[in-house]
Amino acid sequence: MNKTELTIQEIHTVTLNVLQTFHDLCEREGFRYYLAYGTLLGAVRHHGFIPWDDDIDVMMPRDDFEKLLKLEKTQASDQVEKLVSWKSGKSIYPFIKMINTKTVLKEKYLDKEYTTGVWIDIFPIDGMPEDQKIVDKKYKKVIFYKMMLMTAYSEMGKGTTWYAALAKRFLIPICRHLNTKKICNKMNKISKEYPVR
């Protein structure tokens, strides 16, 4: 099988195809979703992608997100664009991705064992408590869990600084022994404690 490196324009085309598949699924199921983060900024400022961006971010209300999560089990095995999540063990992240299974996208500092296809990220929209102290406490917990996850899946001996690369040599083996699926479940449990009002 020949492997060809895609240009950023080709990645954008593949990503838009994934988004179209996701949009069709949402239309069929009656799910709501919204462009988010850099994707929304790119749509407004550039009338498309931010030129160097290589993925699409969308958000959906938590109830639709939970229904979408259940659809992962119903997909055909030969489907090109697929939903993947931590629940099935097909993703390392505490949110849903829809990936193109005919591509491979390597993330910087992530061990090659955890590469996936070109994707869109699908995040839930959750509520927040009014008490800032509770917000701060929850935020610190989620960031701590996120750091454990990212360390567990990092490339050994590589980092943004020599100190980070050295620290990973000690931390990666420890974090890889943790139950990362449980960590993702904890992050989601914290996030959905407060419904949107």
Structure report:
This protein is of the alpha+beta class and about 200 residues long. It is about 45% helix and about 10% strand. The chain has helices at about 10-30, 35-45, 60-70, 130-150, 160-175, 180-190, and strands spanning about 35, 55-60, 80-85, 95-100, 120-125. A 5-stranded mixed β-sheet has the order 1-2-5-4-3. The longest helix has 22 residues, at about 10-30. About 20% of the residues are buried.
The proportion of strand residues reads 5-15%
What is the terminal separation in angstroms?
51 Å
Compressed to H and E, one letter per element, the order equals HEHEHEEEHHH
Uncertain runs: none
Largest sheet: 5 strands, mixed
Spatial order of the strands in the main sheet? Answer: 1-2-5-4-3
CA-based gyration radius? 18 Å
Question: How much is the average pLDDT?
Answer: 87
Structural class: alpha+beta
State the total count of DSSP E strands: 5
Features:
197 residues, alpha+beta, 5-stranded mixed sheet, 5 strands, 45% helix
Quickly describe the structure.
The protein is α+β, with helices and mostly antiparallel strands.
Fold topology:
Blueprint: H1 8-29, E1 34-35, H2 37-45, E2 56-61, H3 62-71, E3 81-84, E4 96-100, E5 119-125, H4 132-152, H5 162-176, H6 180-191
Parallel strand pairs: 2-5
Antiparallel strand pairs: 1-2, 3-4, 4-5
Helix pairs in contact: 4-5, 4-6
